[in-house]
Amino acid sequence: MASPREHGQQPVEEAAGDQQEYTTVLTDPVNFNVKHPLFSSWTLWYDHGGKRLTSAQSWEQNLKELITFDTVEDFWGVYNNIAKANELQSGANYHLFKKGIRPMWEDTANARGGKWVFQLQKQRGADINDYWLYTMLACIGESFEYEDEICGAVVSLRKGFSRLALWTRSCGPREMTEHIGRQFKGLVGLNMQIEFQPHSDASKSGAHGKDKYVV
Ligand code: MGP
Predict the structure, then answer these.
(1) 36-214: which CATH number, 3.30.360.10, 3.40.50.300, 3.40.50.12160, 3.30.760.10?
(2) Atom of ligand 1 nearest to the CA of 91
(3) Where does the pLDDT of residue 11 fall: very low under 50, low under 70, confident under 90, or very high at 90 and above?
(4) What element of type H or E holds 67?
(5) 111/9 Cα distance (integer angstroms)
(6) 83 Cα to the center of ligand 1, angstroms
(7) Is the CB of 75 under 6 A from ligand 1?
(8) d(Cα 163, Cα 135) in Å, to the nearest integer?
(9) Which sequence spans correspond to the domains of the chain?
(10) Region Disordered: start and end of each range (predicted)?
């Protein structure tokens, strides 16, 4: 079981391996041009859904890697210059994943994992933008106690509804997975039941129906 990270605990200095000091905008108060580093680099992917897919390979061919960023400023630069989630065409998805994790079940980081998921009806179109933004901020801000469990998130536009999913590295223990689900709801301000689905069920590779939780 992964151990929870204390909120606000900052691994950057350890990772740097020396006594490096934090760099902030105040480091250069004249030029005021220092960017705020994220804990990790994140990659935004897009797929348009498009034509009916017949194989894992053709599904993957639809995936486009848009950009990787590792600062707060670059995140907002991307966010402010791409289509909002509710402007995507039906069938399309944005995927935001830690750099190095492909947004697919087959990636080793996802292969034994699953997703916390909820749907909104189409008439709540604008709400999905807020939920997607709060989800991305929770991810890049590494706000989850079981941070190592978080692989990424996906927003999906479909006919009549939209869907948001938080992908985790594993499906348990139950206590940990449910904790992540409850924290996800709190961080995005969601007041409805959400469901956990193991990827093995979605991919039908050994679907077993267990590890299905609700919070
Ligand atoms: P989906 O978009 O996650 O489900 O997957 P949805 O929205 O219920 O279905 P849709 O038809 O309305 O889009 C749709 C299909 O995309 C799956 O049945 C797979 O064929 C393919 N697919 C999706 N994902 C996330 C993966 C993946 O990670 N790997 C592979 N190989 N195929 C995937």
Answers:
(1) 3.30.760.10
(2) 13
(3) very low
(4) strand 64-71
(5) 28
(6) 22
(7) no
(8) 12
(9) 36-214
(10) 1-20
Residue bearing the CA closest to ligand 1, atom 24: 104
Handedness of CA 89, 50, 93, 77 (dihedral sign): negative
Q: What is the pLDDT of residues 136-191, one digit of tens each?
A: 999 999 999 999 999 999 999 999 999 999 999 999 899 999 999 999 999 999 99
Q: Which residue has the least CA distance to atom 16 on ligand 1?
A: 59
| Among 206, 164, 210, CA closest to 187 | 164
pLDDT top residue among 126 and 103: 103
Q: How would residue 17 be classed by pLDDT, with cut points 50, 70 and 90?
A: low
Q: Distance (Å, rounded) from C-alpha 204 to C-alpha 114? A: 13
